[in-house]
Amino acid sequence: MSPLMIPLSLLDLAPICSDGSITQALDNSRRMAIVAEQHAYKRIWLAEHHGMLGVASSATSLAISHIAAATQHIRVGSGGIMLPNHSPLVIAEQFGTLEALYPGRIDLGLGRAPGSDMATANALRRDMNASVDDYPRNIRELQTYLGPQQAGQKIFAVPGQNSNVPLWLLGSSLYSAQLAASMGLPYSFASHFAPDQLHDAISVYRHHFQASAQCAKPFVSAGLMAVVAQTDEQAQFLFSSVQQQFINLRRGVNQPFQAPIDSMNGLWSEPERVMINHTLQYALVGSQATVKAKLANFVAATKVDEVIVSMPIYDIDARLNSVALLAECMAQLN
């Protein structure tokens, strides 16, 4: 098999546009999932974030059900559920229910960040004094609830028990890579916003991987931003929405997803420009020819098993067009 014969998937935050509503954001996610399925994307994941005026996927399991109900065979899941925010039993029940409703199509990606600021994390009733050591223990507890009934087991997830929903670990650090390897789970690295440890994390994960009942060998996906359009100039214009979003994050400004602008000059400072360009260094932005070359270079350099892309494009028609154009790029590479 060619090293470029890899699946293509989507990560979605159901962006709430500045001139739109939450209802429209969730409907746009549904439309994108339908188009992705038509173009042979393997999976679409939704991410848990809280208190962000530009993100509609906070009730992630509900958003997953909304997407799964509108599609037929594409896998749907979380990218991810921030497990420290939740009881493992509740997550097992939610995803056991999703698996019962949409058999064989549900993924459960897990992260350990709060997906919010600390005040919001406290409002989620998260134990802010919990040790990092609680995260592996909570994952194992979750595996117990989703796996076959064990002798002497007293607490059951119903639905959930024996649903065997596949788990993924998500991360942007060497810690997450080491944990995924030790637990024998597939690993997805967030290179779309944390590029610095990409290669080291993949190396650590593959080197230390221990086979498990779920995974006989290591499996790595990596996240990328993607904005594909007819021309490089048009794609760069659309990408300015993402650049504005990252400026707002850096400045602590909480607002809906912004419309694209003709130029970022005057909007960002030189340090902000340098920081954001570094953070988004792997973004696939441009025409199909430009993006195809960037994608081929990324896959050759990382040898990832799957690419998962975020397409935060303001206009839904441009977003759907980008989904289709990127699929054509991957098909040509494959």
UniProtKB/TrEMBL annotation:
Pfam family, any one: Bac_luciferase
Keywords: Monooxygenase, Oxidoreductase
Domain of life, per lineage: Bacteria
GO MF, one annotated term: monooxygenase activity
GO CC, alphabetical: cytosol
Keyword Isomerase found: no
Start and end residues of each Luciferase-like domain: 24-300
The keyword Cell inner membrane appears for this protein: no
InterPro entries referenced in this protein's UniProt entry, alphabetically: Bact_Lucif_Oxidored, CmoO-like, Luciferase-like_dom, Luciferase-like_sf
Gene3D superfamilies, alphabetized: Luciferase-like domain
Similarity comment: family membership: To bacterial alkanal monooxygenase alpha and beta chains.
Stored NCBIfam families: oxido_grp_1 (TIGR03558)
Protein name: Luciferase-like monooxygenase
Organism: Paraglaciecola hydrolytica
Lineage: Bacteria, Pseudomonadati, Pseudomonadota, Gammaproteobacteria, Alteromonadales
